[in-house]
Design brief:
Blueprint (H helix, E strand, L loop, with lengths): L8 E2 L6 E2 L1 H11 L4 H8 L3 H15 L4 H9 L12
Antiparallel strand pairs: 1-2
């Protein structure tokens, strides 16, 4: 299910704004999955996966998955996942 651009969520103060799909991909990144693995699980292309990962990294203001995971381990809160319809 794709989420419309208008159905997004953010932290108080608007620090991070992730789509539903980005939440799904972030959860799989946290499990240690590669782009190829994520693409297979979500039935999307690897290029689409890479685009979503790049957007997630930009939104967290980090350069790579290692920095993203360090950010998450430091306890930075994640936005709430929007309700699914």
């Amino acid at each position: 299910m794709e989420i419309s651009e208008s159905r997004r969520t953010s932290l108080p103060g608007g620090a991070i704004d992730l789509t539903q799909r980005e939440h799904e991909i972030l959860a799989l990144i946290r499990q240690g999955m590669t782009n190829t693995m994520i693409a297979e699980v979500l039935f999307i292309s690897e290029d689409t996966t890479k685009r979503h990962v790049r957007h997630i990294l930009q939104k967290f203001n980090v350069n790579n998955r290692y920095e993203l995971l360090c950010c998450l381990l430091r306890g930075q809160e994640l936005p709430a996942i929007p309700d699914q319809e």
